[in-house]
Amino acid sequence: MRAFLLIAHGSRRTESNEEVFALIESLRPKLESSYDLLQAAFLELCDPGIGAAIDSLIEKGAQEIVILPYFLNQGRHVSEDVPHEILAKQSQHPDLTIKTLPYFGKASQITDIVVKLLAKHDA
Fold first, then answer.
1. Which of 10, 35, 69, 81 has CB 3.0 to 4.6 Å from 103, enough for a Cys bridge?
2. 3-state helix/strand/coil string of the chain
3. What is the pTM of this model?
């Protein structure tokens, strides 16, 4: 079973965290042919945390987890904290396949998104 895990920072603002959960729900119909499970996790300030989310996916039968760090820049969280959390779970579950994608802001499509937003603004 294949799972997708979106990792965001987490916020004290409930509305911000709810946006992440809403993103997962909007992705669900678009990814249902590729992923059996979709879940959000947070580095801090909101549940579920990364470790708990990975455990939950394993309990639901995930054998492979594809992770997207939902961060714009490569700060300490992206370069150290998130990988540390993932490696800790990988060491607990050596048979689990975990693939971590480049963080969201690193995606080459980011420039296209900015151009489209500007085009809508300028129209």
1. 69
2. CEEEEEEECCCCCHHHHHHHHHHHHHHHHHHCCCCCEEEEEECCCCCCEHHHHHHHHHHCCCCEEEEEECCCCCCHHHHHHHHHHHHHHHHHCCCCEEEECCCHHHCCCHHHHHHHHHHHHHC
3. 0.93
